[in-house]
Amino acid sequence: MMARLVLRDVDVQHGRTRILFGVSASIAAGQIVGLIGPNGAGKSTLLNAIAGQLSAKGKILWSGKPVDARDIGFMPQHCQVRAELSVLEVILLGRHEQLGWRIADDTVNAASRILAFFEISDLAARSMQTLSGGQQQLVLLAQRLLREPQLLLLDEATSALDVRHQMHVLKLLKDYVARTGALVLVAVHDLNLAARHCETVMLLNGGRLVAHGAFQKVITPDILRSVYGIEAEFIPSQSGTPVILPLSPTSVEANPMEKSP
Ligand SMILES: Nc1ncnc2c1ncn2[C@@H]1O[C@H](COP(=O)(O)OP(=O)(O)OP(=O)(O)O)[C@@H](O)[C@H]1O
């Protein structure tokens, strides 16, 4: 039976402030799911709760059991390596549970392969400290994939990448999902990227799950107005997925940033 992530009435509170309000969803593995919503909607909070990085009320189940850290790969929003480590060392740390006195040949080979997949083999000996923001992001993504997690949680993990690298990484993720049947849950601001690469999207607003389904059903001109506070044009494209062209912000009242329903 295919694995499934089940969220049941997930509530998160910081101090006295409630951040997530009863988020419930049942998400089948074998797809890339986009977590979308305006700033402050609760995307990072939900990913952190699923990753077990903060306490939440309700149930978060992967294949019917509480999420086990060994099943997941999690890339938080602000992720940096401060230590003086080479790119290869950082990649190998993706399998730190398996590293012993001797690093097995297949681990080194897997690390070399993942560097090649991400087209960063030439960076292997470089110190992480000398890399650009986008290069660091590629290395950290490659590190997460090395251990082949069944549940991959990515918080704006392609935000520092140029367009070509973004497309390349999303193609890698698509191939990874097809090969392993994993579930990739990715918080993303770029709606056109979500439209093209995510099988389904979950729209959060004010800490609540507003909609969950195929992008074209979830994202409509009305939703862009009421949730994002923008007027936008939907331009038909050859791919069959319309391109969203933001035109103007609606009035301040209609912009619900940080507004709790
Ligand atoms: N430690 C904290 N203490 C209090 N409030 C917090 C804390 N962390 C986050 N929040 C609040 O929780 C809400 C949701 O934040 P979160 O980072 O999950 O949103 P987001 O959808 O990921 O936003 P963005 O797109 O801007 O990254 C925001 O209103 C934020 O101010």
From TrEMBL:
Q: Which domain of life is it from?
A: Bacteria
> Coiled-coil segments, which residues?
none
Keyword match Signal: no
Q: List the Pfam families hit by this protein, alphabetically.
A: ABC_tran (PF00005)
Molecular function per GO: ATP binding; ATP hydrolysis activity
Q: Where is the ABC transporter domain?
A: 5-231
CDD domains documented for this protein = ABC_Iron-Siderophores_B12_Hemin
Name used for this protein in its record: Iron complex transport system ATP-binding protein
Q: Which SMART domains does this chain map to? A: AAA
**From what organism does this protein derive?**
Shinella granuli
Q: Which UniProt keywords apply?
A: ATP-binding, Nucleotide-binding
